[in-house]
Amino acid sequence: MAVNLASLIGNPKNKNLAKKFTAFNNFLDSSIGQTLGLRKGFVKTLYYGAYGGTKIVSMISGGGGSAKADPARLAAKTPSDFFDLNYTEEQIMVQESIKQYGLKVREAAEKVDEKFEIPQNLWDEYYALELAYFQIPESLGGMMKEKNTVTNMMTVETLAHADLGMALALYTSNSVLNALVRWGSDAQQKSLVPKFLEPKPTKASIALNEPTALFSPYELATTAEKSGNGYTINGLKNMVPLHGIADYFLVIAQTKESGPQAFIVNKGAAGLTITADRGMGLNSAQLGQLKFDNVKVEASALLGEGSGFNYEDYINYSKLGWCALAVGCCQAVLDYVIPYANDRFAFGEPISHRQAVAFIIADIKIEMDSMRILTQRAAAKAEQGMPFAKEAFLAHIMCSDKSMQIGSNGVQLLGGHGYIRDFPVQRWYRDLRAVSIALNGVHI
Amino acid sequence: MNLEVPNKFKGVLKTAYSAAEILLRPISRKYDVGEHTYPKELDILAAALSGANHASGGAIGGATSAREVVVPGAKKVLKNGGNMSNCLNIQGISYGDVGLLLSFPGQGLGNAAIAAVSNDEQLSRFGKMWAAMAITEPNVGSDSAAITATARKEGNNYILNGEKIFVTSGERCDCVVVWATLDKEIGRAAIKSFIVLRSNPGMKLERVEKKLGIRASDTAAFVLTDCVVPASDLLGNPEIDVKKGFGGVMETFDNTRPFVAAMALGCMQAAIERTREILSEKINLKDHKTPINKLKAAQATFYRMEADYEAARLLVLRAAWMADNKIPNSMEASICKAKAGRVGVEITLKCVELCSSLGYSYQELLEKWSRDSKILDIFEGTQQIQQLIIARRMLGKGSSELK
């Protein structure tokens, strides 16, 4: 259960933090840690503050929580009055460890895309990053007090720099976790959140998109009707990541009483038919179709159990997730075409010596920076508890338009080679087409 | 991470936008039509604004950070400083009228050069003057290393000969910073800049250009004929240092690209806001939910303009923030200039189109903003020059490889 930060400890800049993490890892590996982990039913809260030293406060209850407690929520960061584009030291450290992992992801990406399956070792190493701790409030066993939207954005971007499809597959469960932290009821949080901290964490996915032209998340055909104590869901969802391996799905359906709501639906629910739904790309995310034929869920399956769910925010966080995927992948395109254009000779010199080639690369940089900075601003506003609907909307427009253009230019710059599946640009081209379409899967 | 404009700049913004709306907009069309007429209202405004600028740590277009002393070993504290304040100020004034901004007395590009590279003695003599900048020649544009105007040392003087065009405020200024070469054979290392007084009989004003836009701003052409300049009026190092090359003169531009980008932001903001007012009677422009493909084409166009504007604005703030914190920003300065320059033209032209014949008419200022904004994608480095700078940096190529 060790956090893969060993390589970072050597960096003096990260020494203090690394020490804290080492202490934390040691604790988790210790017999006390294991014991606490095993006594799940009794461990109400496992507290540790990685930022405030290695203080560990464990509160062991007599078991059986009270009926209606307040759910744990991350507080908004105190709004800053200082323009600052820097990531914090902690964020840089998280980013570095993801980058290390990302090298292996990139190496495996094309094979995974062909095989529709992420190998177990990559799952295991992903879990070793223990990203969930950066999402979960302290009171639920995580490390967070405050909202972490920027960290989440950076995480998704960095994963997508390795591979967009795998980033989607890997982060989908973390996305469900974000939604549970943000809107889940006390009971939902207590039963579902700790499972993301187990050695083999929960796999979960999000089903929102419907197979219809000009799809709008505000005009859903999937419905959830009140019946008895629960709901009956009918409809069709597609482009759902991890369709074959998710334990449960967060399903968005239209209700008469309160508009679109999210329901937690187990993979084995009666009336739910799950089939593969192969698409243009994102193969490693194992996209699938979910058919709901009078699927009955209990009232407790409603995310938030009737209080606090904000669908508009939900959509906006999903848009930012897809923006982050787009930014990461476009950075990958840029990083790939630069050495290619320098190494590829035509007419006796590198093709990068031609403005027709070089200016496309300059434009990729200009527009990618535009995408990233709009996404960062929206995420930073969200994190500070400010309204961010407009910012997310504009960021999503920019990322939708420019990322596909960049994906297309990536193939173009490689000429015929770009069209061959030995080169990654064709995969990015296929993956990036999803950015303006999909709202499934990621949610930061 | 936070990308909001700090509250401490509220004062700067308020002053700039009030000046823009109360003082500049009402005379905007007057000096567009009355090209080459001196906007006398600016004298009062300049006096009023100089106090505000001083408080914010710099003048419009001035390179405020150029003279800051860096204490070795001092703890680095990040700051939001003069460059950001300047960008916000420039955007605000340009929101009023970018042609008039360029005509502000004492705020020439030459002033930025003097602020950046003069010695103390020169600063005391020229610091308060209105200084224009003369680089371009009839056959030299972006390739400023190819300058043909010459400077010949004679005793304690330099003798300048050549022709200079596109000198902003050339007619109205007190002095001109003239670029000339000490030795054409050597190239860029031999190019030096000289402060030439307007009263110097060797520098003759040939004409004032008639232009597409920014008509409130005068653009002059000069001929220098055996123009005698005291040796003490050479800016920077008089020696030809082949290794250092262009350093001195080009540094000015690293500082000023974000400022020109900020001018484009002002134009864009003016056009977007006015277009929103006009269009809001017909379509909803506050729908941030509906997918863009389900909107009316005009709505979708408007939101795309807003996205481009916001991206350009944030990229300008990034470049300024980097400059304020002494982070090398040459590429980021070019990125913000390229983005703001191109979308400035696209957006202002699209605003005219969205407002139909109303937008095309002199009844509105929309057509004017779309003429004004074109120069901002050209001067102080065209779109293509910015792309070259960015591409060379990305690809690790020099000017001999990626031409």
Give an overview of the whole structure.
The complex is a heterodimer of chains A (444) and B (403). Chain A has 444 residues and is an alpha+beta fold. Chain A is 45% helix and 15% strand. Chain A folds into three domains: 6-65 and 85-197, Butyryl-Coa Dehydrogenase, subunit A, domain 1, CATH 1.10.540; 204-306, Butyryl-CoA Dehydrogenase, subunit A, domain 2, CATH 2.40.110.10; 311-432, Butyryl-CoA Dehydrogenase, subunit A, domain 3. In chain A, helix 4 runs antiparallel to helix 5, helix 7 (164-183) packs antiparallel against helix 9 and helix 11 (389-413) runs antiparallel to helix 12 (425-432). The longest helix of chain A has 33 residues, at 311-343. By secondary structure, chain B is an alpha+beta fold. Chain B has a single domain (1-403), classed as Butyryl-CoA Dehydrogenase, subunit A, domain 3 (Up-down Bundle), CATH 1.20.140.10. Chain B contains twelve helices and eight strands. In chain B, a hairpin with a 2-residue loop joins strand 2 (150-154) and strand 3 (157-168). The two termini of chain B are 38 Å apart.
